[in-house]
Structure formats: structure tokens, C-alpha cells
Write a structure and sequence with these properties.
Length: 504
């Protein structure tokens, strides 16, 4: 009986099971001891911890992680995807999904399904661990909304502090264990990590957890709001049929799409005045106040747009796959994502935000054409949009698995009941422009060595990557897109009859 099983787990946690305190390493995460070859281990190392959580925005030249295609293991390489996963902490140790389906949320009201809605995060975590015991998993891609309802329960502006210990311990570290213990979580922030309906949660400490804290297992990885990583899959056996390949991941913050004028939509607005004091802000980083908030997020978005175009152009000369990881699906910002995905050949977008599991296959009715889209917002941190099945015969709660190859990526949707619900294939697409000779690609390979941990993130390559002219033709459409979104938001609010929700 699933409820008895997880009740027993909760009792065990409450009885005093704790994670041992880990020493805070001032520079980089120490590699697990089994990594004998440190020239290119299967792990990403952040630079030295910055003084400001915004300092590494645009970081793109970290040393890649390397994974051997054979290495004595014939299983294919897999990557897991999860989003909207971190529930609410009750009584100091028990975790349950944020309840968004009760009658007070008129637009989302539905029946409560015992055995699914009460243990959603536990069930998804259990399914991940069971599958990981069989799969050859390299790392986890996390699309945000890590802690409901409103992020780490502390205030932004205290980057060097660690104030979310119980949340990190019970919602993350103790929840995902066993075969998941030594898998890095490459992460972005969701709107609830900023605070949901305000911007004052300790989102900066979420970034800071990259450099460890008491109880950390050293697997959290988010050195900035937006950044790039590279995974190299090496083939060391010339007789092996599987060819080596490279994947570039672009981690993008899309929370601008939940940042409106301060007097607008108080229930779904990071910048709203009802939950942000008009004179209160995040010192050091911003936003300084609700009036500045919308434009603060827009400025970050504009820098990202230019940076992303620059990085995609370089990636097309050096990498087989270009994958964007972000919180909001491309229904938000479609006028941006359509042209940039076509121009630069984005192969896949990995997203969350909507609380269910979905996949947009390439071409057909996909508004992005050849760019496949994963929506993995059913991690169980909040109750699902639709009605789940107690035994997992649904696509409401779950996670995704990516099986990586040079010529294709196999996407598998797994439910909270551990069942395989769907399988699709994604094939690489080319950019819309002609690529130059691939021999020139070497100039775009990472040049930062492992010893360069103290490199200044303001160096010329990052400055170059933030030039705004790269995507001016795309940015000109943003304000019209925002106006259309606000109009649609007001229309939906009228249908919800002023629903008292802090959540999109």
C-alpha cells in the first residue's frame, strides 16, 4: 500500500534520520573519488564562488563534462528531466504537494485522488530511483519551481547565507537518493523560486547552493541565471558502431513572462505591489522596487537573447545537438522562439511550468517546426492540472528520460506509477543558414582549463556575447507579445472569477 509505505518513510524521517553536515568548500565542488581521470571527468565544475549571484550570467566557457560511450558498459547513455517538483514542508520534515486543486482555486478545482495527489513528489522520486537503478544515467536536467509555494523561505540579498536547510534536506537531498545520489542537477529557476507572486524569496541562495552548504551532497548545479554547458560523449573503441557526439545545453531564465506592471494581475505577477512592499527590493542584485521590477527582468531577458544567438551560432560549428533548458514553454514568447529556433536550428526545448507531462514532436502541428518541445511540469511539487490515476495510468505526474545518440534522441515519458507512457524520437536539425567548413569549429572549443577557477566572468568573450544587435529583429516583437499576454491574462482572470491564486 503506497500510503503506508510513504507514511513509514515520513515516520522514519521524523524519527531523526538526518544528512551529515558537509564542509563548505570555498572554491569548487570536489570530484567524487571514483573519477580517476580528471582531465575531462563526467562532471561540471563551477568557477570560484562569486560575491554576487549575477556575476556569472552568460557563463559559457566552463570545461565540458566527458562521458565514455563504451567504458565496459553497453547500456545507452540517459539523462533525466524533471520540473515543478519541490513540495511544501509541513511540521518540519514531512513533504506534500502544494494543493492547487481545492475549491478555493476555481479555475483549477478538481477531485482529490488519494494515493496520487497526497504523495505525488514521493512517487515521482521513487519512480526515478527505480529506473535509475537500471538505466545508465549521466545527470538530471531540472526546469525549476524547486520549492513551493514561494521558493526558499528566506529573503533575497543574503547570498552568502544558508537559510533553507530543512527545505534542501527534506524536499531535495533526502527525497532523491540511492542511485540518484551522485548525479548532478543542472538547473534553472522557475517563477516560484523567485517567490511566485513576489520577487523577495531567496532565489540567490538557490544559485549559491551550487558551491555547497551543510548537508549538501554536492550535486546541485546552477552557477548563474543563464549559462551554457557542454557534454562530450567520447568513443574510445574504433570498432564500436556508436559514434561520438557533443551536446550543448543552454540554460535560460524566462521568468520575464511572469513579470508585469506592478498594479497588474496581483495573483500571477512577480512584480505585483500586493505582495512586494513598494520600497523593498533585493539589495546588491535588484529588483530595487516593484516599479523597477518589470524592466529589470526585461533587461536580463534582452541580454540573454543576444547571448543565446551568439552561443547558438558558435555551437553549430562545434556540437551535434543544441538544447535549450528553461522554465516556461515556448507558448510564452512564441514570437521570439519561432524565428530563433528556425534560424539556429535548436533541436529541442526542455521546459515545465504547466503541471503535467507533455511532448511536442518535430514538425506536424508543432509551431516551432523541427524543434521538439518537452513539458515536464509534473514533478509532484504541486497538484496536477488534470485528474491523475492512483496507479499512474496518466500523464499528470512523472518525469522524462532522454536516451542520447549522435543521430537521434529517444524521449520516454515515465509516470508516477513507473510505467512508460510514451516514446518519441528526435532528430537533429540544421540552421537556416549555410554552415562554414567544420574544420573551423576548433576555434569555438572551450579554452578555460580546470585551474582557471578564478577567471573574471566579465572577460571579453562574455562582453562580446551580450551585444544587443544580434537579435534586434527579434526583440522588437517582445513588447507586443507582452501586451498580448496581458490581454489574455485579463481574459482568463475574468473566466476564473478573480481566482485567489498565487500560481500560474
Amino acid at each position: 500500500d503506497i500510503s503506508k509505505r510513504f507514511n513509514a518513510t515520513g515516520a522514519m524521517v521524523r524519527s531523526g534520520v538526518a544528512v551529515a553536515l558537509a564542509s563548505i568548500v570555498p572554491l569548487c565542488v570536489a570530484p567524487p573519488p571514483e573519477f580517476k581521470d580528471l582531465s575531462c571527468p563526467p562532471w561540471w565544475y563551477p568557477p570560484k564562488k562569486p560575491k554576487n549571484p549575477m556575476e556569472y550570467n552568460g557563463l559559457s566557457d566552463m570545461k565540458p563534462a566527458c562521458f565514455k560511450l563504451n567504458g565496459g558498459d553497453d547500456r545507452p547513455h540517459s539523462v533525466y528531466v524533471i520540473g515543478d517538483w519541490g513540495g511544501v514542508l509541513y511540521g518540519g520534515s514531512w513533504v506534500a504537494p502544494a494543493d492547487h486543486r481545492s475549491a478555493q482555486f476555481k479555475g483549477h478545482s478538481r477531485a482529490f485522488i488519494k494515493g496520487a495527489d497526497d504523495f505525488a513528489q514521493h512517487k515521482v522520486a521513487d519512480a526515478m530511483m527505480d529506473h535509475a537503478a537500471v538505466d545508465r544515467v549521466d545527470y538530471i536536467l531540472n526546469v525549476g519551481d524547486n520549492f513551493y509555494w514561494g521558493g526558499i523561505s528566506a529573503t533575497c540579498g543574503n547570498f552568502d547565507k544558508f537559510e533553507g536547510g530543512p527545505q534542501w534536506t527534506y524536499i531535495y537531498e533526502n527525497m532523491y537518493h540511492g542511485p540518484l545520489d551522485k548525479l548532478q542537477w543542472l538547473s534553472v529557476l522557475g517563477n516560484h523560486d523567485w517567490g511566485g507572486w513576489h520577487y523577495l524569496a531567496a532565489w540567490d541562495q538557490t544559485i549559491g547552493y551550487t558551491w555547497g552548504a551543510p548537508g549538501s551532497k554536492w550535486r546541485w548545479f546552477q552557477p548563474a541565471l543563464y549559462y551554457k554547458t557542454r557534454a562530450i560523449y567520447e568513443q574510445t573503441d574504433p570498432d564500436h558502431p556508436e559514434k561520438g557526439f557533443t551536446v550543448d545545453y543552454f540554460f535560460v531564465d524566462t521568468n520575464m513572462f511572469d513579470a508585469f506592471d506592478p498594479e497588474k494581475d496581483q495573483m500571477h505577477n512577480i512584480c505585483g505591489t500586493s505582495h512586494n512592499h513598494k520600497y523593498q527590493g533585493c539589495n546588491v542584485t535588484g529588483p530595487a522596487n516593484p516599479g523597477e521590477c518589470k524592466w529589470w527582468f526585461i533587461s536580463i531577458w534582452k541580454r540573454q537573447c543576444s547571448w543565446l544567438a551568439e552561443q547558438l551560432e558558435a555551437s553549430n560549428l562545434a556540437s551535434d545537438w543544441q538544447i535549450v533548458v528553461t522554465h516556461f514553454p515556448p507558448l510564452w514568447g512564441m514570437d521570439f522562439w519561432q524565428p530563433i529556433s528556425k534560424k539556429y536550428g535548436i533541436d529541442m526545448m526542455i521546459t515545465g511550468h504547466t503541471h503535467h507531462q507533455d511532448f511536442w514532436p518535430q514538425w506536424g502541428r508543432n509551431p516551432l517546426g523541427g524543434t521538439a518541445v518537452i513539458v515536464s511540469g509534473g514533478g509532484g511539487g504541486i497538484t496536477s492540472e488534470g485528474l491523475p490515476n492512483e496507479h499512474g495510468w496518466d500523464d499528470e505526474y512523472g518525469f522524462m528520460k532522454l536516451e542520447l545518440h549522435k543521430e537521434q534522441i529517444i524521449v520516454r515519458m515515465v509516470s508516477h506509477g513507473k510505467q512508460l507512457r510514451r516514446e518519441e524520437r528526435v532528430y537533429p536539425i540544421l540552421p537556416s543558414y549555410k554552415l562554414p567548413d567544420m574544420k573551423k569549429s576548433q576555434q569555438f572549443m572551450p579554452t578555460i582549463e580546470a585551474g582557471d577557477a578564478e577567471v573574471n566572468p566579465a572577460h571579453e568573450r562574455i562582453k562580446e556575447a551580450t551585444k544587443t544587435e544580434k537579435v534586434d529583429n527579434l526583440l522588437a516583437q517582445l513588447e507586443e507579445q507582452r501586451k498580448a499576454m496581458m490581454h489574455e491574462s485579463r481574459r482568463l482572470d475574468e473566466l476564473r472569477l478573480d481566482e485567489p491564486s498565487q500560481l500560474v
